[in-house]
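Researcher: Sequence recovery benchmark, item below. Answer with residues only.
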């Protein structure tokens, strides 16, 4: 049964459509997903490009030796240029990704690519002070005040380019679920033409996805998109994402490489498949996500052109049933996976 919150004034027609059967643009135009190439089902996430430190493995040697703002901006622009040239048209950022929104906004201003779909997130603040050794890099707060502040900051940088604004790292126990004023504010944003979604993290992602997609404001579903971690080591949210896709929500997949571990230290079945297909293990891990029909947009977290090219090789890989069956033995208990992720150092 849907959780319903009433009292929101009648909204006008929503001009942004994000759905399981297609891509999206302003004006409600929906292109068929089946006509898209696999490259077009991929997007670029800026979590590891917008700040000097992050938890992704295999990142150090791919970034500038001196991670100044200028050097990281140049690195981000190089990857953005290469991604666009390869056919990627979706870029995902967040307020907590350091200067990711600023880097993206300046790149869009310079390149003038109108067909880029931009998604971003609110709920975490970057507090790392552009330092590798910061004690704390980000702070989470799902409140109406934080939403309004960060939406204003995002709009100041990206203006009307934002197609999807997501609650960052929603969990089933988030105070958001009981904050009626915040839910109404999100619904108002949606009614104004910006899609509203959420991302998930933690061992209870499936519960969060189902609870969030059950929210309704005045009879209308609040969230039209979900972004979750799904990979060969942690696929526990898969059934919930399949349900989300079937219900019309747009499904984005993040951390397909398990924060780099599937590329740096892949299990034997992934290494073997990579050898057979003549690609890197990262391409195999991403191909496994692309093999899921419910995955509408699969994000690459590449920080260099080299990483991006090896990631995009996934678009040419068709995994066999026997390979997918071998991969079914790889998942670890979700709690173990997320505890290991929490222990990764910021470098």
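Model:
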């Amino acid at each position: 049964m849907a959780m319903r919150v009433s009292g929101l004034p009648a909204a006008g027609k929503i001009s942004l459509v994000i759905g399981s059967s297609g891509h999206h643009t302003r004006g409600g135009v929906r292109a068929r997903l089946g006509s898209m190439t696999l490259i077009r089902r991929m997007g670029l996430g800026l979590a590891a490009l917008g700040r000097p430190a992050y938890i992704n493995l295999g990142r150090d040697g791919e970034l500038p030796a001196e991670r100044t703002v200028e050097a990281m901006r140049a690195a981000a622009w190089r990857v953005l240029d290469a991604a666009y040239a390869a056919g990627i048209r979706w870029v995902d950022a967040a307020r907590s990704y350091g200067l990711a929104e600023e880097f993206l906004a300046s790149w869009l201003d310079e390149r003038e690519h109108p067909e880029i779909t931009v998604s971003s997130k609110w709920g975490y603040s970057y507090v790392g002070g552009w330092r590798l050794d910061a004690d704390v890099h980000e702070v989470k707060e799902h409140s109406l005040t934080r939403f309004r502040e960060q939406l204003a900051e995002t709009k100041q940088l990206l203006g009307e380019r934002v197609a999807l604004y997501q609650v960052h790292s929603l969990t089933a126990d988030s105070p958001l679920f009981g904050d009626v004023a915040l839910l109404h504010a999100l619904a108002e944003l949606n009614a104004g033409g910006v899609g509203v979604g959420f991302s998930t993290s933690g061992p209870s992602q499936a519960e969060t996805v189902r609870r969030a997609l059950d929210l309704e404001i005045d009879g209308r579903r609040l969230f039209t998109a979900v972004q979750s971690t799904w990979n060969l080591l942690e696929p526990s949210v898969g059934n919930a994402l399949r349900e989300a896709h079937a219900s019309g929500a747009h499904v984005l997949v993040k951390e397909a490489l398990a924060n780099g571990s599937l590329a740096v230290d892949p299990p034997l079945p992934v290494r073997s498949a990579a050898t057979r297909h003549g690609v890197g293990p990262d391409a195999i891990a991403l191909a496994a996500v692309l093999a899921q029909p419910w995955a509408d947009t699969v994000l690459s977290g590449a920080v260099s052109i080299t990483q991006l090219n090896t990631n995009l090789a996934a678009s040419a890989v068709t995994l066999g049933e026997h390979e997918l069956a071998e991969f079914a033995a790889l998942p670890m208990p979700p709690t173990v996976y997320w505890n290991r992720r929490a222990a990764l150092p910021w470098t």
